[in-house]
Amino acid sequence: MRRRARLLLPLAALAGLLAAGCEPSAVPVGGRTVRIEASEYRLRPQNVTVRAGRVTFVVVNRGRLIHNLAVERIASDPDTTPPTLGRSSSLHPGQTSKPFTIDLPPGKYRLVCTIGNHDDLGEHGWLYVTKD
Questions:
Q1: Between β-strands 107-112 and 70-73, what pairing exists: parallel, antiparallel or unpaired?
Q2: CA distance linking residue 18 with residue 21, whole number of Å
Q3: What is the spatial distance between Cα 65 and Cα 75, in angstroms, rounded to a whole number?
Q4: How confident is the model over 15-59, as pLDDT tens digits?
Q5: Any idea what DSSP says for residue 12?
Q6: Deepest of 12, 47, 105, 130, by most Cβ within 10 A of its Cβ?
Q7: Based on the number of CB atoms within 10 Å of its own CB, is 56 exposed (0-12), middle (13-18) or buried (19 or more)?
Q8: Of all helices (H) and strands (E), which one includes residue 72?
Q9: Distance between CA atoms of residues 59 and 105, nearest Å
Q10: Helices assigned H by DSSP within the chain
Q11: Residue 16 in 3-state DSSP?
Q12: Count of H-run helices and E-run strands, the chain
């Protein structure tokens, strides 16, 4: 019984943090270029922080399937398709995208692979844009 209690305590603490709305940790980008690696149902880094302004994205496909990256504004209505602000081309394994640049004001944006059901399988993340 004690063993189960030792396992449940950390899970309860994690659930409390998630319920409190804590943001996941994000990798800060010092420059103006965000580099993302896409692979089977994962973006690395998954969560990124960058300063507002013109931001350039470069995507590398490290997986065995075709992947891409889209930067989406968060939809105010969950039943609508979120507007895409910028997107890479579809990349075959080992390919690197041509850079694409977006002018981003402060806010929270979604990073997502739009191929098939990759988003549903976990190939998404967050972009946090902060004031200069």
A1: antiparallel
A2: 5
A3: 28
A4: 444 433 445 688 888 889 999 999 999 999 999 999 999 999 999
A5: H
A6: 47
A7: middle
A8: strand 70-73
A9: 21
A10: 2-19
A11: helix
A12: 1, 10
